[in-house]
Amino acid sequence: MFSQKTIILSTFGTILLACSSSPGTDDPAGSTTSGGNTQASGTTESGTTESGTTESGATESGATESGTTESGTAESDTGGPSQSTTGGGDVTSGPGEGSSGGPDSGTVCYEEELHPEASIEDIVAEFGGSEHRQQVLEAVTRVWPGGRAYLEQNIDHVTYGNFTEEDSWSENVFEFSRLMHEMHHVYYGVNDGTVYLNEGLIYELGEGSDANGFPRGEIYDLIPDHFEAEGYVDIYFTGEQGQWKLNDLLDEWACYTAELPISAIYDKYTEKGKMSIRDGTAAFAHFVQLYLRVAKEDHPEYFEEMKNDPLVVGVIRDNWLRMHYYLEMADNYENAGIDDAIYRAELYKPENLVALEELVGAKLGESHCTL
């Protein structure tokens, strides 16, 4: 399918840059209350507000990686993440081969096993009772095999229960995207800051990595005025959260990206109309672009450090490609977005791609492959 110089980012069914919010900030039992989606009607429910999303506490612990391959066979290499082709799903080779941290030749692509039209009617018909958490897990992973690992690890966590309903399938569907989002926060927290894109791409961003930079609030003046509609700006870039760093920004982007694979389930079974499943990941991709612009223009020494940190390069490049792979599927479902077009329009403007492309050492666009 790809030319000889194409590198496939292969993984066991992929998932995410888990999030940098640590569980337990607002909930004594350890749950997070951030993330999730906005409904078109603007209703407020657990973890969301009509103006966007909120999150509780974040950590700034970093990431480590182990090895990359082009053929899907893991080999030791401190310059990139470990990889596996088990279970179908492909993600790029690890970062670090080029002078700026990206590959020095060839095309890098992200692929993964997704089955958006897989039938879950048997689960829906039998849903309810003491097995409801396992039933939710089976429904999600039937359409998205890569979601199993991070959901199953924490299936008994209080946050999992907060976003699943024992007796109502329709309410579970409404909470599915929030569940994906929040369980990534949990995975990150209980695994000491591990950013999990899939079994083959795992990043542990520690305090020693270059994901700990300047406060993300420095991008505030560059954010387009029309982004205010969803409330992302005031929530994430002012006050205490405005002081959080790059790792927290990447973590939130990963959490929003994790919502995309369940677009088909939500679209088919929702009784509540459109939800901002696509909106969040596109908005945060642009926030990352703006952070890199500010780094390049106002913190040039730090920007050079980032370019030479394979963890920072890898997680940004791979989540960009992963996001676009998921969007190719999610775009088929009308109820999976509200205003995502206004965010996506910013992503491909030349001024927003310059710093991003310099960082990853490759041309990027509206594709799950480097160009």
What topology does this entry show?
Layout (H helix, E strand, L loop, with lengths): L5 E4 L38 E2 L2 E2 L35 E2 L16 E6 L8 H6 L5 H12 L4 H6 L4 H5 L6 H22 L3 E5 L2 E4 L27 H6 L8 H12 L5 H7 L7 H22 L1 H8 L2 H21 L9 H8 L2 H11 L11
Parallel strand pairs: 1-5
Antiparallel strand pairs: 2-3, 4-5, 6-7
Description:
- The structure is a single chain.
- By secondary structure, the protein is mainly α.
- The chain has one domain.
- It has helices at residues 121-126, 132-143, 148-153, 158-162, 169-190, 232-237, 246-257, 263-269, 277-298, 300-307, 310-330, 340-347, 350-360, and strands at residues 6-9, 48-49, 52-53, 89-90, 107-112, 194-198, 201-204.
- It has a three-stranded mixed sheet. A two-stranded antiparallel ribbon has the order 2-3.
- A hairpin with a 2-residue loop joins β6 (194-198) and β7 (201-204).
- It is globular.
- The model is unreliable at 1-7, 10-36, 41-89 and 91-105 (pLDDT under 50).
Provide a brief overview of the structure.
By secondary structure, this protein is mainly alpha-helical. The chain is 39% helix and 7% strand.
